[in-house]
Amino acid sequence: MSNTIRLSIPGMKCGGCVSAIEKALSDQAGVVSSQVDLATKTALVESDIAFGVLSDVVKAAGFDSTELSVVQESASA
């Protein structure tokens, strides 16, 4: 089952920040997709891994994050 989790990433300041976070998330096993938005300082991540793991990935990229919501839960095909 995969979840789409919305994260708040308040430390983003530029396109380079977005790129670093997107790369870190896309390189993580279990992440299906991610969309990072500089304007809202959020990321939507579809994955089958827990928020704690996603938070660690974002932290390794140099940013703090908090979970805003689980947008949806869907069964994997």
Rg over alpha carbons? 11 Å
Overall shape: globular
Helix content: 25-40%
Please state roughly what percent of the residues sit in beta strands, choosing from under 5%, 5-15%, 15-25%, 25-35%, 35-45% or over 45%: 35-45%
The sequence of SSEs as H and E is EHEEHE
Alpha-beta classification? alpha+beta
By DSSP (H or I, 4+ residues per run), the number of helices equals 2
Q: What are the low-pLDDT stretches, counting only 5+ consecutive residues below 50?
A: none
Number of strands: 4
Instruction: Strand order, main sheet: write it out.
Output: 2-3-1-4
Instruction: Give the N-to-C terminal Cα separation.
Output: 9 Å
Largest sheet: 4 strands, antiparallel
**Mean pLDDT metric:** 91
How would the blueprint of this fold be written?
Layout: E1 2-8, H1 15-27, E2 31-37, E3 42-47, H2 51-60, E4 66-74
Antiparallel strand pairs: 1-3, 1-4, 2-3
Can you describe this structure?
It is a single chain. The protein has 77 residues and is an alpha+beta fold. Helices cover 30% and strands 38% of the residues. It has helices at residues 15-27, 51-60, and strands spanning 2-8, 31-37, 42-47, 66-74. It has a 4-stranded antiparallel sheet with strand order 2-3-1-4, covered by helices on one side. The longest helix is centred in the N-terminal third of the chain and has 13 residues, at 15-27. The protein is globular and about 35 Å long. The mean pLDDT is 91.
